[in-house]
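Changelog-adjacent note: as of this version, every example in the card shows the full chain rather than a window. The one below runs 58 residues end to end.
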Amino acid sequence: MIGRLAFAAVFALLIVWLIVIPRDRIGQEERVPPWWRNVRVWAIAIAASQIAVYLCWG
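Full-length structure tokens:
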């Protein structure tokens, strides 16, 4: 139980970091792309799915 929460917490911290990282660090300094081409949106979605995997099946 503690291990599952620890791994989920790591991905939760990753999501927080992805939210606060500046756009120029991920190569989107010119303009905000549409959501389906936004690297930040996809990285957050993958990290959230990893949290779900660790909490449900970990």
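Structural remarks: The CA atoms of residues 5 and 55 lie 7 Å apart.
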